[in-house]
Amino acid sequence: MTNLRIEFDRSKCIGAGQCRLSDPIDFVYASDGTDKTDLADSANIEDPNIYVKEGDHPQPHMPVNAGIHCPVKAIRVVNLETGEVKAPR
What we know:
Order of helices and strands: EHEEEHEE
CATH architecture: 2-Layer Sandwich
Number of domains: 1
Radius of gyration: 12 Å
Helix content: 10-25%
Distance between the termini: 21 Å
CATH class: Alpha Beta
Strand content: 25-35%
Number of helices: 2
Structural class: alpha+beta
């Protein structure tokens, strides 16, 4: 397991769905009925549009791939143990 911080800026989301294909556990269809995405089990901490999820992740490649494939770079993934930004690249 890897300790990650996943940040999702919902204001940038255009509903392309690449994140949901790459990581259907963390990224789910929006609860408001739009084509946008929500970050599952996240907290809205810093900004009204920024959602954050931290903790050990059993499959860290999944949110990293979601961040890499997001066409508008709405996803940022940081390894909390090393400080390395894993996505976007």
